[in-house]
Amino acid sequence: MPGVSLRRADVEEQLLAEDATRAYLRQIGGIPLLTNDEEVYYTRRYVACREELRHLLASQPGLLLGALERIAAAPFEDLSELVGNEVLDDPEGLRRRLRAVLAAGARLVNQADAADPAEEREELRPLVAASLVGMLEPLALRDAFYEDCLKRVLSEAGREMPD
Question: How much is the pLDDT for 134?
């Protein structure tokens, strides 16, 4: 009977899937879990590295503004990897915020570049960086955005991002 063999095939497929799942669970069960202290350590390290990267990118306003321009020009479907869900609910609002950040960032960079003498320009750089970092906050940028920026920096330096 065709119906019986189909059911048997379904049952066999289900059993194979369950066996694969059991094998996977057994395999990962052999890997020691992080202790609470290790979880806290790695979480703090991750947050610190992300903040450091944000400030590094902000200190390179041309790179950061270029990355934001790419986001502003990207199709909406591509944004989910780069920005948080809380800003994706309002695509037009996100585009407006991006344009505002781009305009304000460009103004800040132009003002800093126009400063004279050179010492004053150097004094303005940390202020521009801090302002840019503050402007990024409402965009809820995801790690993929920062990774993309970091890859571009490394690529320009002739290096690759480690795995």
Answer: 81
**Cα gap 136→138, rounded to integer Å:** 6
And the tokens for 84? 């948080």
For residue 57, give the DSSP letter. Answer: H
How far apart (Å, rounded) are the C-alpha atoms in residues 14 and 100? 53
CA dist 63 → 52, 106, 149 (Å): 16, 12, 8
Q: Is there a contact between 115 and 127 (Cβ–Cβ < 8 Å)? A: no
List the one residue out of 156, 62, 160 whose CA is nearest residue 110: 62
Q: How far is CA 76 from CA 43, 52, 70, 80, 139, in A?
A: 31, 28, 12, 8, 14
pLDDT of residue 55 exceeding 80, the answer is no
pLDDT above 50 (res 1): no
154's CB contacts (< 8 A; 6+ apart) are 160, 161
Q: Which residue has the tokens 């990774």?
A: 147
- 115 CB neighbour count, 10 Å cutoff: 15
Give this prediction's pTM: 0.60
Q: How confident is the model at residue 44, as a pLDDT?
A: 93
- Check pLDDT > 70 for residue 10: yes
